[in-house]
């Protein structure tokens, strides 16, 4: 168990540099004990991998005798979040071209945030002549309905 943790901490240091790490107890169906490794990134703890010691009966049934077995998996999205400074994992499942257009094969860039609400082009302008009169929408409808110039 300690060898597993030490090896994965070394891997995390290679991938993320000198960052603060912590182990969190977890549950995975074929390992015991099970853990998740988190790093401190962007002011928050970020899970980067899950791991555990494979159940002895599974290892023995594979023909490996009494040798210990380890299981671990890295979250590729988590690695990309750190590499590209992406703040929210849900962006990877976005269909927004403003996200996808920022990345090209072979280039490492810093993610540029954008509003989750697209631009809205529904501005209305009125020219009222020399004097400017402010109306609310109901006032404008009333004005148009009573003005003879707008009737056929």
From TrEMBL:
PANTHER family (alphabetical): PHENYLALANINE--TRNA LIGASE, MITOCHONDRIAL, PHENYLALANYL-TRNA SYNTHETASE
EC number: 6.1.1.20
Keywords: Aminoacyl-tRNA synthetase, ATP-binding, Ligase, Nucleotide-binding, Protein biosynthesis
Pfam family, one: tRNA-synt_2d
GO biological-process terms attached to the record: phenylalanyl-tRNA aminoacylation
GO molecular function, one term: tRNA binding
Domain Aminoacyl-transfer RNA synthetases class-II family profile per the UniProt entry, residue ranges: 1-113
Catalytic reaction equation(s): tRNA(Phe) + L-phenylalanine + ATP = L-phenylalanyl-tRNA(Phe) + AMP + diphosphate + H(+)
InterPro entries with a match to the protein in the record: aa-tRNA-synth_II, aa-tRNA-synth_II/BPL/LPL, Phenylalanyl-tRNA_Synthase
UniProt protein name: phenylalanine--tRNA ligase
Annotated SUPFAM superfamilies: Class II aaRS and biotin synthetases
A GO term from the CC aspect: mitochondrion
């Amino acid at each position: 168990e300690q060898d597993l943790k030490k090896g994965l901490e070394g891997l995390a240091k290679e991938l993320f540099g000198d960052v603060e790490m912590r182990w969190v107890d977890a549950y995975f169906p074929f390992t015991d004990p099970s853990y998740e490794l988190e790093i401190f990134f962007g002011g928050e703890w970020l899970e980067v991998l899950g791991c555990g010691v494979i159940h002895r009966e599974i290892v023995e049934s594979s023909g490996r005798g009494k040798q210990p077995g380890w299981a671990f998996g890295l979250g590729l999205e988590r690695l990309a979040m750190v590499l590209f400074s992406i703040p929210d994992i849900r962006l990877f499942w976005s269909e927004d071209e403003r996200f996808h257009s920022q990345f090209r094969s072979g280039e490492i860039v810093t993610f540029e945030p954008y509003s989750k609400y697209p631009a809205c082009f529904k501005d209305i302008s009125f020219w009222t002549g020399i004097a400017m009169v402010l109306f609310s929408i109901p006032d404008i409808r009333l004005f148009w309905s009573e003005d003879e110039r707008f009737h056929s």
